[in-house]
Amino acid sequence: MAQHTFGVIGTGHFASYTIKALRAGGNTDPIVLSPRNADYAAALARDQGCRVAEDNAAVVAAADTVLLAVRPHQLDAALADLRFRPEQTVLSSLAGVPLATLHDKGLPAHTVRIMPSSFVEAGDAVFPLFPPSNAVEQLFAAAGRVVVFDDETAFERSVLIACAHAWCYALLAHMTDWFSEHGWPEDVARDMVVRHLRGTTTYALAHPDTPFDAILEGIATDGTFTLAGLEHLHAQDAFRPWSEAFARLDRELNPN
To answer: What does the DSSP assignment read for 18-75?
Structure first.
């Protein structure tokens, strides 16, 4: 089978964990990196078998598929003087930049938006994409689960779930700090907090037909400390700010 060269414009954190996920899934195709962010590029070249190109134009010239992994405000500068071939596939990781805008900026017909989260390099990855593309699905299928959206507004909300998973680190830090302040060694607190969260999600994945409320009701029964704490959280309307944060970001991502 002919090799398929994967190119990256914008070699930063996003590119790094996406490449690591592909390699972990068994992808051995050539990967060509833009020189932007020399530290990331050098590490990926050393550890993931990538090659650093002279500039963005050299990436586009060498690649069959090009990942755009820059910030939205950097897009115009990144695309300056680039000429994509009609047969190329371009993957955009730019949150809030719709497909129509990307086409208006000269990207080829086969441009696909993707939004993997930073944990994908650790396994159990999920790759949201829009619009449907068999080639892109096949590219990421070995690295994790591909979730295909037919509607761009629905796809855009994959940004929200990516944000929420990152907010969970703040919750993990808060819980770890509380237990550390109340007598546990910090390493024990961190390990216990993380393992309990992993156990929770593992159980939920193992019981896909059981509603979350039903699982919780089986644990937070009358007289339990679980129920007492849950009632306090509900009394404080503790989950309302999460909905508000989702709504705020959703308005910014989908202003129409």
So the answer is: HHHHHHHTT--S-EEE-SSSHHHHHHHHHHH--EE-SSHHHHHHH-SEEEE-S-GGGH
Token pair of 90 as six digits = 């371009």
pTM value is: 0.89
pLDDT tens profile 200-212: 999 999 999 999 9
Cα 120 to Cα 141: distance, rounded to the nearest angstrom: 12
Tokens 């979350």, residue located: 212
CA 22/CA 139 separation, integer angstroms: 8
In angstroms, what CA-CA distances link 181 with 132, 187, 190, 194? Answer: 49, 12, 12, 17
Cβ neighbors of 1 (< 8 A, separation 6 or more) are: none
Whether 35 and 59 have beta carbons less than 8 Å apart is answered as no
Residue 34, Cβ density class (10 Å: 0-12 exposed, 13-18 middle, ≥19 buried): buried
Residues 45 and 109 sit within 8 Å (Cβ to Cβ): no
Residue in 94, 83, 86 with CA at minimum distance from that of residue 130: 94
Q: How many CB atoms lie within 10 A of CB 123?
A: 11
Per residue in 80-101, pLDDT (tens digit) is 889 999 999 999 999 999 999 9
Strand partners, 127: 146
Q: Are 84 and 90 in contact (CB under 8 A)?
A: yes
8 A C-beta contact, residue 220 and residue 227: yes
